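Onboarding guide, step 5: your first structure request.
Type a short instruction followed by the sequence, for example:

Predict the 3D structure of this protein.
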Amino acid sequence: MSIEPCNNFYFSIVSALIPLIALILVVVLMTAAPVRAAQRYSRSDLVRFQNRIIDYRSQINPRFKKRVRSRTRLIIVHTSELGLKSSLRVISKGKRFKNGCTTPGGHANYVIARNGSVYRILDKKYRADHAGRSMWNGVSNVSDISVGIEFVGYHYAPLTAGQYRAAGMLLFILKRVYGLEDKDVLTHSQIAYGKPNRWFSKDHRGRKRCAKNFDRIRAGLGPTWSFDPDVRAGRLTPDPTLAQVFYPAPGAVVSIGKKGYQSQKSDIISKQNSAWAIAGEDYDAHSTVYMLPGGKTLAGDRVASSLGWERLPEGTKVLLNQKTKHVREQAKSIIKTISPRMTAWSHAGGAYHASSTIYFLPSGRVLNGYRIADWDDLPSGTRLVLGYKGPIVISKNKTAYGIAGAKFKHPGTIYYIPGRGPVQGNKIPDFSDLPKGTGVYLPIAG
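The system replies with structure tokens like these:
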């Protein structure tokens, strides 16, 4: 008896089952994906994380009126453009403007410090006033439908690994509570919009640059939207800078830095990096300070009348949330001081951890920049110098003159005097009376 008919019979059955098997596999894979995502964090991991959240709710401004959101459709991430202490104060207590007006605080539900600590400013159910003038997919006043998370840091500087670890767990919890997807997590720069100004003749995207350095992959998220729905619908004019960051053309190469974050333009004005590209709507704010290459400083609301926007030179540094007088004093000083507003990043940028950046801590410790894990770890009152080498300790065989030569009295020669701190050479009246252990720091540039 021939076995050919039998083979054909089984072949027919298998052929018929292939589409069904494929469908079953697709369904299994689709349903298994959430399970695999849920296994990223164990229950004990999540409980431990929640128990470590720092309760900061008692610090909220009494003027802030708590209101429960009726619905939650989005999670919005921000960068504070400040150090930790100032971020917590402003977000909980409110902002103060040049004209004396203040806000009642409540500007985020959570703050994530650069060491990964999470602060609860408001319970997640309450509406935080964090998004300002905003729109997403035709819905205005995004604060009404979203949870707000602030990262301590700047939009032109990388966030830390600790912040991304904390964000991953916090976002996982919030998405599960509100039934949200990865694409429902957006940055403030994606949803904010502005009124017409000198750069745009119509309502436009790009009012804020906030969190444009946010790396979704490092926070455990999938891709964002592939387009801006409000721009596509004609409700808003696109912002070229943000469109390139969030919605690059198909096949475009996205630059990723060595630490895994998308490379961002700096806070320095150039042909490709305008005041608008750096500061957004804050370009002409009184609290935005422009530090010109020669050391001159201008508040944002004085640039047009004193210089003109088209005449801002390349190399001008843009500092947000500052006082012009303070920045001017610091720009003139060789020995700079860290304050709640003027962080190590404000002074040194990416060179905050360079070996030639020397920190003199209030405790008396002296550290090279390469020993600083993060710019926000340094306490207020820390002083620093940029582009220096040393110390060379003064001894019987090594005098100040023997170390620094004719420049031993020069203001650029820095002496670290135990118990007194760093002092410029021109401010030391008697070099014969320098105490034991005094160290000399010399500028690398000569």
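Each response can be followed by summary notes, for example: DSSP finds twelve helices and 21 strands in the chain.
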